[in-house]
Amino acid sequence: MKPVEFDLNVSIDHISHWLPVQGPIKDFIHHNTLHAVQHYPFHKGVAIAAKVFGARSYLALTEYQAMHKQGRIKDFAIDWAIKHAGVDSNNYPQLREKLFATDSTDHYPPVSLANHGVRNSWLTHLEIDLNSLVHPIIFRLLANFLDQGISRWTLAKPDESFLSCVWRLAQNSLLPLYPFNESSIRDLLNESPNDLISLCLQRIVGDESLYEQYLLEMLLAHPGWAGMVRLIELDPKALLERRQITLKELIAVELLAELAILNKKRGAKFINVAQTPHAAEIPLLNDYEDKAIVPLPLKVWHEAMEYSLHTELLIALKAPDAPVKAKEKPIAQAFFCIDDRECSLRRYLEELNPAIETFGAAGFFGIDFLYQGFDDAYPVAQCPNILNPKHLIMESNLRPEAEKNAVTEGFSDLHIKPHSLFKGWLFTQILGIGYAARMVWDVFRPSSQLLKIKKLSEVDAHTHLHLLRENDEPNADGQLLGFSVIEMADKIEGLLRNIGLTKQFAPLVVVVAHGSSSANNQHFAAYDCGACSGKPGAPNARAFAWMANHEPVRDVLRERGIDIPASSYFVAALHNTSRDEITYFDKHLFAQYPAEVLQIFQNTMQQALQKNALERCRWFELGPQKHSFEEAHQHVATRASSIFEPRPELNHSNNLYCVVGRRALTRDLFLDRRSFLHSYNPDSDADGQIIVKILSAIIPVCGGINLEYLFSRIDNSVYGAGTKLPHNVIGLLGVANGVEGDLRNGLPSQMIEVHEPSRLLIVIEQSTQVLDKAFANLGAPLKEWLDNDWVRLAACHPGTNELFFYHSTGWEPVELPAGTSAPTADCSENIIVGQRATIPVHCLRRSAA
Amino acid sequence: MNTLLLACLLLPLFGLLLIALLGTNEKKIATISFWTTHAMGLSIIVLLALWASNGFPGHEFEWFTLYERGNYRFPILFYFDRIGAAYLFAVWVIFSVIVRYCRNYLHREAGYKRFFMTIFGFALGLNMVVLSGSIDMLFAGWEIVGISSFLLIAFYRHRVQPVRNALRAYTVYRFCDIGLLLGAWMGHLLFHESDHFSNLAVLFADSAPPPASYPALALMSVLIFIAACGKSAQFPFCFWLPRAMEGPTPSSAIFYGALSVHLGVFLLLRTAPIWSYHYIPRTALFCIGLLTVVIATLSEKTQSNIKGQVAYASITQVGFMFMELALGLETLVLVHFLGNAFLRCYQLLVSPSIVAHMLRVEGAIDTDFNIKNTRMPDYLPVSIRDTLPEVLQNTLYVFALQEGNLELLVRSMLWAPLKQAGAKINNVSGVVKIVVGLSVLLMTWLAFTTDVINSLYLAAPAALAMVMASLSAFSQKHSFIKIWNAVAMSALFAAGAVWLLHPEALPDIVLFTTGIIPSWLLGILVLIKLPKQANFKDSPFAYRAMAETNPILSLLLFISFLGLVGFPITPAFIGEDLLLYHASSQYSWIGALIAVCFVINGIAAARVFLRLCMGRPLEISQS
């Protein structure tokens, strides 16, 4: 091998490719956990990642076999998967035999780069547990430097970089900063980061060709912090309180700490990495990339499971259409987020009142902006994180608020700050015993409101959004305050055309955003709207309704061919997905609306929410076994406010399908809350421009949600965050186990434990010709998702319902096993009775009833 | 009342056994724990009511004598007074809350059964400590609390860090056990039959001259302080408490927020007559409290994680309690204890909500948390006005960030010398060891067959051999069997040394060895049965995950580990006490050495258990 010139910056780029990209915990942006290998086909990528990170690639063999026994994996799907496994047809029987072999160790993680690389074998040779000595020091420095408000003394000074902060503590303090206390080490801090790193690497590694490998292994020993640092370096605005830090600085400080500790423990003349015996035999990153082997039986099982689950939907779609009834004019229309949790609520609404029509769209409703509520300290982005909003919307109070009573205010939240000295001494003496009562009360009688944290549904009705821009002067951060009329019309038109609603507006159009309230939950952001970067979508719904009601906007829209009649009104609402409650906004405007329709809608909604609560309750083992609607509703509300409930709701854990098409396609299907639903009219999109727009939102958002759940489920301790029970909040940045652990990425086990880890199946109601045209305009990063099978895609031909799978090689007609048809039922309640696991797609014969 | 006392003690044990035997699924475990918890709660309430109606007396109850020989008696003895009442009340409230909380919180968690068994074990140990009537009984409960704490810290055994922190906490516990072990024999030595808590106050009140000399009392006070400081994470052991927050949040809340951390205070309350007799121990205690308060307050300021912050806040308050104790404010301490226990428990339970609270309620990040020294420069000379405050600020920050450097201090003072000495012993070649061993044996033989050497003088080499075996076990890294043998050898040498000192104590020594030898052999059996492919030489630091790959062997190893360290399930527990009693009645320095060796052995054996049983299993066959 010819010696490779080591270039630090290039290496850092290579390495950071392998680090997780999960931002601070205040937002939660779902993404493909394995973005690092997304340029490989799915199975190959997973196999490489497994060897690099030391993770499992699939569920355990026994789990698949159990699913087969329960009938969740069908025999025809196994046949299909074997046929698609790419082996010679003579070997089919052998492969099939292997599927049913017993092996109890196959689900253990493999020997990997992260845990068994050159660095580890060197450390083993030196008999020194370097990680346990260096990590706590580095994590303490990082956590205090980046801290967003937990620590009571702020470490970072304004505009100070991490390295200069460490320099300050090490060089300019009367007490030595361990382990930089020896002058030979401390003086190295005066060097530039590049020199510092190369000096340390020379001493520790000794061979330039191993430098990058060593740095990668060093960072993969704590991917959470390394990834967080890289993310903040690239996107400083991810933090509310900005910090200057780069991955290079982290590497420099960490290497120096390693060198210092090695010098202390093993003297100045320790054996370096290149001198380790057998160092040459240990595989490097390239070897892992080339030699990763896909475990064939598990791959076949996985594909069979996915095919089984996917065909459940496809069979139902292929079912002969029920006789189309003459469509009556809807009395109300409701827009929902595409979120899978809204899937059942929409079904119940329509079931209860067929004159209500529902639509699905990404939950930011096409309006991207920064939002600052009137008691928020900072504006936050209300849109998927791929967009970069340029408008700032402020909320203001309609009536002056009474001054808060400072004294009582302080008392009710005493326990939040562990104020320690004399005040603490006094408080614990006087008030401590009171906490016995409070604790007993909270645990035995969960209250409806905990910790004075506002329930989502309590958003004040007396506020007003400043939407209309008064002048075009951008503010200091370059944002525009509000939208102009033309911009508003653009946004409204964009969404209406996306979902195919351009005529036949009902007298009442309700824009339903969603959010989730939970008590005692670090990951609360992961329960909110994924299309709003983990925030409740209420501001977007309010903005949408206001704009669509605004007469000048309607005038512009009318010119463009969308005529919203004067008798139609838009109302904004927020669905609380954990408590199943709904809040309507801007009630002071209600007087203008058709009161009767609003009343009907609200009543129907209330019933639908109760039914929805009942349907959700079947998942909660500790919930009451036999429910009335009221009991179920009460149960989900209590659940969301109990401090001891780690699962306020099960979130996206059912996600599996994404259907893009007219509601008629799915209206009569029972999808078991498994499907993202986006409305789309194939007839009005002959050149595929709209579908490109839709796909560029749903592939990263829904695909990201799906893959994050999938990988967190498959290996919860490497790709996921592990169980949330021991999690400790670090600096408002993330969670860790204990006080000195690495940040945990991914989802906690309580969110994913009932998830069936299959890739997303996107079904688009459109002809393959139009889709081909659309895919040509999709852009390489998104095309990668499709071509490498990170999501599955099928086209459903409008009218005929013929189905085709997308492959990078072309369209494959879906051949469903003959003689199978989707189960049918009269109404949703009959389906869910006694069911405790996922339910296959049913056809509802509602029209017959 | 006696029945109720027993019920408080036995109900958790009953719950533990029921869960172990019948707890096949979550629902059954929940039902069992529900009923035993409330039965225990009921007996506590009735006990408190009865005691109150009797006019709050100090109540002593001797159940039976467990072991008696010559002057030595080990009675199962209970004592109940207002201190016990306050603690029992806290146990009732917090334990009921935690069990209810965990019913839902741990739902579907792997290790549900393990968790509830451990938490009942903890309740058993706690009640034993609270109700104990003598230091010996208290020590038994103390050990049970220690082991259950160790198991709960390492609850998430797949990850290295909890396992390491469990060992850290256990090491501190173990070290502080020296205090209690030696305290117990000093109790026997100084007060003979009167070392019952009920008698202590009387003893000191009645006799005008103290029942023992000042130096002896001072020494005993120091021992008690060591034990109390370790359990309550006081100076210089503050560092382990935040790092012990590795288990599920409610277990951290009950152990390190609420109950376990206040056991040191309990010990001090119980033994108050001993150390409060003279102002020097009082002052020492006050200083410990003061130092802790200063260090913990500063450390808390730079904790950027919520649990660490609560931990240091709690340590600070316990430091205050120590100071209050030194001032003799016992009632205040009890009130303070209750307040702190409930508050910290609640804080830990709701700690996950800090994110929502800071972001949604306060809506304010990073406000006025800066170190404020605005006025200070005005008092300084102009020449250093700009630099000195900056330097001081950095210094303060470094101090707080490193938590006073206590961990490094303790490590370098206590562990490093032991490790180095042990490493030297391990480097000695096997031939030398055999030669030395043979010559010792020869001398022993000579001593018994002829009168050339008095057997008493042989006790010294035996004790030395014991120390060397212990040190060797402590720093051995490569062979688990060697560690195990060294630990057992050390225990047997201890027995031998005592035998040489006191040949007539043979039955007591046999009692001790009946606990040690079976545990040792069981451990060896497990170690031999280990799978062959686990190549220990190549990766001495890997965790072998036996608890998952081979749960039965792992359980056996755990039992033998408990036996070997003298946990109160084998006769070795009383034997340990007896050895110390006999050794120290003549040569107290041998007694002290034995105690130190037991402690080191415990740590070495715990390390073997952790390395073998914890960790995440790995794919063995490379396809």
Name the pair of protein chains with the most residues at their interface, and give those residue counts. A-B, 104 and 113 residues
Percent of residues in β-strands of chain A:
5-15%
Radius of gyration of chain B: 25 Å
* Helix content bin of chain A: 40-55%
Structural class of chain B: mainly alpha
Radius of gyration of chain A: 29 Å
How far apart the termini of chain A lie comes to 75 Å
Please give the count of helices of chain B. Answer: 26
Q: Mean of residue pLDDT of chain A?
A: 86
The number of strands of chain A is: 21
Count every beta strand of chain B, where a strand is a DSSP E run of 2 or more residues. Answer: 2
The sequence of SSEs of chain B as H and E is HHEEHHHHHHHHHHHHHHHHHHHHHHHH
The average pLDDT score of chain B comes to 84
Strand content of chain B: under 5%
| Shape designation of chain A | globular
User: Main sheet of chain B: which strands, in order across?
Assistant: 1-2
Which structural class matches the secondary elements of chain A? Answer: alpha/beta
Largest sheet of chain A: 6 strands, mixed
Question: How would the blueprint of this fold be written?
Answer:
The complex is a heterodimer of chains A (849) and B (623).
Chain A: H1 8-16, H2 42-53, H3 61-70, H4 75-83, H5 92-99, H6 113-116, H7 118-126, H8 130-146, H9 162-171, H10 183-188, H11 193-204, H12 208-220, H13 223-234, H14 247-266, H15 285-291, H16 296-318, E1 332-337, H17 343-352, E2 356-361, E3 370-372, E4 380-381, E5 391-397, H18 406-412, H19 422-444, E6 463-466, E7 480-481, H20 485-499, E8 508-515, H21 538-549, H22 551-559, E9 569-576, E10 581-584, H23 595-617, H24 629-640, E11 657-661, H25 663-666, E12 669-670, E13 675-679, H26 689-714, E14 727-730, E15 734-737, H27 749-752, E16 761-765, H28 768-776, H29 780-787, E17 792-796, E18 803-807, E19 810-813, E20 824-825, H30 828-832, E21 842-844
Parallel strand pairs in A: 1-2, 1-8, 3-5, 5-7, 8-9, 11-13, 11-16, 16-17, 20-21
Antiparallel strand pairs in A: 3-4, 5-6, 9-10, 12-21, 14-15, 17-18, 18-19
Helix pairs in contact in A: 1-12, 3-16, 4-16, 5-16, 8-14, 11-14, 17-23, 20-22, 23-24
Chain B: H1 2-22, H2 26-53, E1 59-69, E2 72-80, H3 82-105, H4 112-131, H5 135-153, H6 160-191, H7 197-206, H8 214-231, H9 240-243, H10 249-258, H11 263-270, H12 272-275, H13 279-301, H14 306-326, H15 330-349, H16 354-362, H17 388-401, H18 406-427, H19 430-449, H20 455-475, H21 480-501, H22 506-528, H23 546-549, H24 551-564, H25 572-586, H26 588-613
Antiparallel strand pairs in B: 1-2
